[in-house]
Amino acid sequence: MAERNGHAPLARDAMAYVLAGGRGSRLLELTDKRAKPAVFFGGKTRIIDFALSNALNSGIRRIAVATQYNAHSLIRHLQRGWSFLRPERNESFDVLPASQRVSESHWYAGTADAIFQNIDIIASYAPKHIVVLAGDHIYKMDYELMLQQHVESGADVTIGCLEVPRMEATGFGVMHVDGKDNVLSFLEKPADPPGIPDKPEIALASMGIYVFETSVLFDQLRRDAAEPGSSRDFGKDIIPWMVANGKAVAHRFTASCVRSARETEAYWRDVGTIDAYWRANIDLTDIVPALDIYDRSWPIWTYAELTAPAKFVHDKEDRRGMAVNSLIAGDCIVSGGSVRRSLLFTGVRINSYAAADRAVILPYVNVGRSAKLKKVVIDRGVRIPDGLVVGEDPELDAKRFRRTDDGVCLITQAMIDKLAAT
């Protein structure tokens, strides 16, 4: 956490409000039973753990999480892994499901509404500032530095932004800024994104991270709630209005990205597609990965199950339990099979003569004997039949499983059951 020239950290009087209600439909069947923020990542964590850990490591001790779609798995994870914040230490952790608090037919209508409906709960803690976060990205960031910029600039809203090659920013909300990063206009998915004055071929894309003084945010939420036709959304309504009518300032992610000595890039990933999710996980198996999850100065907090150590058994030439360039969680047993450049989450079993190559295998999967798996994502609890081969025949894979344009196969138990029935 950054120091503030002898002053108390601003994070001490801030609340982090994490928007975690999205379905993440581009992750296909991975989000049939869980919201995108609850999807497993990196061998033992969930996606939401990165935003929550950033808040905690930044010094923020009041955190709220708004949930909506398929929330049970997420809420259970939050209760198990994040219940250590204690009110007697002036800390708080609130899970705020959409609960029709405004009317009997009114769920969260949009990201802004997910905060508006809980204004009374936020007000009871009297935070000075609110840091609004998306719960579905992978990155490490010190929000204290963003809070400091917000106060020093006198902004009404400070918007976290990525520096993106200009013509790659067409799928983002883009900030058109002046030489001091004051936002002149907000453009949603522009065909010709504006560059920034100091780097004309770079655009500033919104990260969905916002800092407000609490009273300013409340005023904006109440104004927007009374606006006919508003979609009650930050990106579509609140931020464009504030850019046009107030002072909005861009905060560049490079200014507050947390990097260990081993990390060379300002790492941020949206793992919202199967291909992006697979790639971000597999990248962690690099000898020196772009994201250092071993950085003890900025730990990624999560719910850690009590498990036995991982185990590797059998040592014959054709039946050797082994893993190379892989992340293996607790309670995994690799019994006479081989694992290469893969991630095995808690409780995975790899049976004799089986082989996993560039595989992301979620908890409690059982891979049967002699199965051969390449470039796969396997959902939690799947039982892979003996002898199943995936990753060698693209046409056959596409008929049986979800195969992406990049050749990654998503496998669920329903797909396996359907295969067994034919």
UniProtKB/TrEMBL annotation:
Listed CDD domains: ADP_Glucose_PP, LbH_G1P_AT_C
**What PROSITE patterns has UniProt attached to this entry?**
ADP_GLC_PYROPHOSPH_1, ADP_GLC_PYROPHOSPH_2, ADP_GLC_PYROPHOSPH_3
Kindly list the positions annotated as binding alpha-D-glucose 1-phosphate. Y108, G173, E188, K189, S206
Q: GO molecular function: any one?
A: glucose-1-phosphate adenylyltransferase activity
Identify the metabolic or biological route this protein is part of.
Glycan biosynthesis; glycogen biosynthesis
Q: Which residue ranges does the record assign to the Nucleotidyl transferase domain?
A: 17-285
Q: Where is this site: Could play a key role in the communication between the regulatory and the substrate sites?
A: Q68, W107
Question: What positions belong to coiled-coil segments?
Answer: none
Pfam families registered for this protein in UniProt? Hexapep_GlmU, NTP_transferase
What EC number(s) does its UniProt record assign? 2.7.7.27
List residues of the Glucose-1-phosphate adenylyltransferase/Bifunctional protein GlmU-like C-terminal hexapeptide domain: 308-411
The catalytic activity, as recorded, is: alpha-D-glucose 1-phosphate + ATP + H(+) = ADP-alpha-D-glucose + diphosphate
Keywords linked to the UniProt accession? ATP-binding, Carbohydrate metabolism, Glycogen biosynthesis, Glycogen metabolism, Nucleotide-binding, Nucleotidyltransferase, Transferase
GO biological process terms, alphabetically, are: glycogen biosynthetic process
Its biological function? Involved in the biosynthesis of ADP-glucose, a building block required for the elongation reactions to produce glycogen. Catalyzes the reaction between ATP and alpha-D-glucose 1-phosphate (G1P) to produce pyrophosphate and ADP-Glc.
Family, similarity comment: Belongs to the bacterial/plant glucose-1-phosphate adenylyltransferase family.
How is the subunit organization of this protein annotated in UniProt? Homotetramer.
Which NCBIfam families does the entry mention?
Answer: glgC, PRK00725.1, PRK00844.1
Question: What is the official name of this protein in its record?
Answer: Glucose-1-phosphate adenylyltransferase
Query: Which species is this UniProt entry from?
Result: Bauldia litoralis
